[in-house]
């Protein structure tokens, strides 16, 4: 007959084994889940960060071309005069040259700039064309392309003119090679319209290597890398595949990846695919020029830390088990309470609750296990909080950043698919920030951004504020603030006036704003609402600039 002590020890040992199994299982399950989530957050954050850098570069290029376009429109007195007065056309072209060359010289990677007039009423070589003959050279005046030598359908030679005109909007053209200076280029072209007539185009050619270098400098895990494709899944920049090759011709197993890239979808989860019999995962973002930025890494490298952590947990359990047997025999009573607490903690972790605190402290292996378990949970909490702070908070202003804005965009689009939510988007942009940075330095400009953000947050106290660009903010209005948006915009206007009244003349703040209200009949995706708000903001910016110019002219008189 077994003694009571033997039975009690057997019972305790059984409980120890059960608790160890629960703790180990919970640790393995949660470690696998947490590491998978962290890997997805890391790759998505790195991808979003790189996409933001590239979009910022593209945005600066667009701004240069838009500035030249606005100058061209503002200084064109009459389309009829441009058509019928050759001397005026020449004088107008001469007037544009210095501005165009200055814009090109101040645009990163620019290798050519041009303003071309409509060949339907202007001579076939009219306009201006300045280009570098080599990457290290200066811009030189060259004879513009002769429209009379090419058909309008000849996209290779004159597509840079007819494609944007046909689109009726600013257009990023696909990369192509300039054999004259052996440079691969990408072009941004804006058609010019005045008096309901096509005047011509303003464009700039950019050295595509500045984008390729950003792609090639990216590394993640051991062999992970970034690459660039267009919206048809043709390779634009890849460490292995040549430029322009369709990915479908590289590997038939890439078909799911190609479909994903063509759809242009992206989310918080990583997309799994197989390439050359290697399992991989990727995160990608769609750039403002329509290209797909992809960050990819082998699954084995992504899971390396997870596998190591699981092995460590298994080894720890194998070590702790025999020690627990010995401790149970020696001090059965002391081990009961810590085991109960560990069992409870394991259940909380299995439910996804990491906010645990172990209070039972013993100077034995169970205490070591409890302490290690607590430290592991604390490290996981700190790591998750750290990743979240990096991914969703703007470092300068403290408001939400572009990544958080994209999450909100996906959330609202899901609501749009399920029903008809009520919301509005306000887009705000700080005027003349470049002038402030140039005259007073970027630190002063950063202070102005922070002050502007403070006024925006104060004016929209219950709505999320996102910094979506260097000097651009977006606010998503829902609920009561959506209903009272008129009063809130008036509050912002009043706040800016009060700020300027109490600020030095050199520290005046001007914010352009635009708002768009969701219309379930016309807005199929969230970006439609944002686009209308952004257009309204730019119209407001133009109106403010016009009023300021008129006021300055009046003072001169």
Could you list some keywords that capture this structure?
alpha+beta; 3 domains; Alpha-Beta Plaits; 6-stranded antiparallel sheet; about 550 residues; Beta-Lactamase
Structure in words:
- The chain has 557 residues and is of the alpha+beta class.
- The chain folds into 3 domains: 4-39 and 304-392; 76-210, 2-Layer Sandwich (Beta-Lactamase); 402-556, Reverse transcriptase/Diguanylate cyclase domain (Alpha-Beta Plaits, 2-Layer Sandwich).
- The chain contains 16 helices and 16 strands.
- The strands form 3 sheets. It has a 6-stranded antiparallel β-sheet with strand order 3-2-1-6-5-4.
- The longest helix has 72 residues, at 4-75.
> Can you tell me the CATH topology of the largest domain?
Alpha-Beta Plaits
Quickly count the helices. 16
Distance between the termini: 116 Å
Give the fraction of residues assigned to helices.
40-55%
Question: What is the domain total for the residues?
Answer: 3
Low-confidence stretches: 1-5
CATH level 4 superfamily of the largest domain: Reverse transcriptase/Diguanylate cyclase domain
> Main sheet?
6 strands, antiparallel
Radius of gyration based on Cα positions: 31 Å
Total DSSP E strands: 16
Instruction: Give the strand line-up of the largest sheet.
Output: 3-2-1-6-5-4
Mean pLDDT equals: 85
Query: In percent terms, what proportion of residues is strand?
Result: 15-25%
| Name of the CATH architecture of the largest domain | 2-Layer Sandwich
Structural class: alpha+beta
CATH C-level category of the largest domain: Alpha Beta
The gross shape turns out to be: elongated
């Amino acid at each position: 007959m077994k003694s009571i002590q033997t039975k009690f020890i057997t019972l305790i040992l059984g409980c120890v084994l059960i608790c160890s199994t629960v703790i180990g299982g919970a640790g393995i399950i949660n470690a696998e889940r947490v590491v998978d989530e962290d890997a997805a957050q890391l790759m998505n954050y790195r991808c979003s960060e790189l996409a933001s850098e590239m979009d910022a570069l593209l945005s600066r290029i667009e701004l240069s071309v838009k500035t030249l376009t606005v100058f061209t429109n503002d200084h064109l007195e009459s389309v009829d005069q441009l058509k019928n007065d050759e001397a005026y056309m020449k004088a107008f072209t001469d007037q544009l040259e210095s501005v165009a060359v200055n814009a090109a010289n101040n645009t990163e990677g620019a290798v050519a700039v041009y303003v071309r007039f409509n060949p339907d009423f202007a001579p076939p070589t009219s306009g201006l064309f300045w280009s570098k003959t080599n990457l290290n050279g200066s811009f030189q005046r060259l004879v513009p392309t002769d429209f009379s030598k090419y058909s309008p359908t000849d996209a290779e030679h004159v597509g840079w003119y007819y494609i944007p005109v046909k689109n009726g909007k600013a257009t990023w053209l696909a990369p192509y090679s300039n054999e004259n200076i052996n440079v691969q280029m990408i072009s941004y072209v804006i058609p010019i319209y005045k008096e309901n007539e096509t005047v011509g185009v303003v464009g700039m050619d950019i050295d595509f290597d500045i984008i390729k270098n950003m792609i090639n400098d990216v590394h993640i895990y051991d062999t992970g890398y970034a690459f660039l494709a267009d919206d048809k899944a043709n390779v634009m920049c890849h460490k292995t595949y040549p430029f322009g090759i369709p990915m479908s011709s590289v590997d038939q197993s890439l078909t799911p990846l190609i479909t994903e890239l063509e759809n242009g979808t992206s989310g918080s989860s990583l997309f799994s695919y197989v390439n050359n019999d290697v399992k991989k995962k990727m995160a990608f973002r769609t750039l403002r020029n329509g290209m797909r930025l992809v960050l990819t890494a082998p699954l084995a490298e992504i899971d390396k830390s997870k596998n190591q952590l699981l092995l460590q947990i298994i080894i720890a359990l194998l070590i702790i088990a025999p020690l627990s047997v010995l401790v149970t025999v020696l001090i059965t009573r002391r081990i009961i309470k810590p085991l109960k607490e560990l069992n409870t903690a394991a259940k909380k972790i299995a439910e996804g609750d990491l906010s645990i605190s172990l209070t039972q402290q013993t100077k034995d292996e169970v205490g070591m296990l409890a302490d290690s378990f607590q430290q592991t949970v604390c490290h996981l909490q700190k790591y998750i909080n750290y990743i979240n702070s990096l991914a969703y908070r703007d470092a300068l202003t403290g408001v939400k950043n572009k990544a958080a804005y994209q999450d909100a965009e996906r959330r609202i689009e899901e609501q749009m698919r399920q029903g008809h939510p009520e919301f509005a988007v306000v887009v705000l942009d700080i005027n003349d920030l470049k002038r402030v940075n140039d005259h007073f330095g970027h630190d002063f400009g950063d202070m102005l951004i922070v002050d502007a953000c403070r006024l925006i947050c104060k004016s929209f106290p219950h709505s999320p504020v996102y910094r979506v660009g260097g000097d651009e903010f977006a606010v998503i209005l829902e609920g009561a603030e959506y209903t009272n948006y008129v009063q809130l915009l008036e509050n912002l206007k009043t706040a800016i006036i009060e700020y300027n009244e109490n600020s030095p003349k050199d520290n005046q703040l001007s914010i352009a704003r635009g708002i768009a209200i969701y219309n379930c009949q016309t807005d199929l995706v969230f970006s439609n609402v944002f686009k209308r708000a952004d257009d309204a903001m730019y119209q407001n910016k133009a109106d403010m600039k016009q009023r300021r110019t008129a006021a300055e002219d009046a003072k001169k008189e």
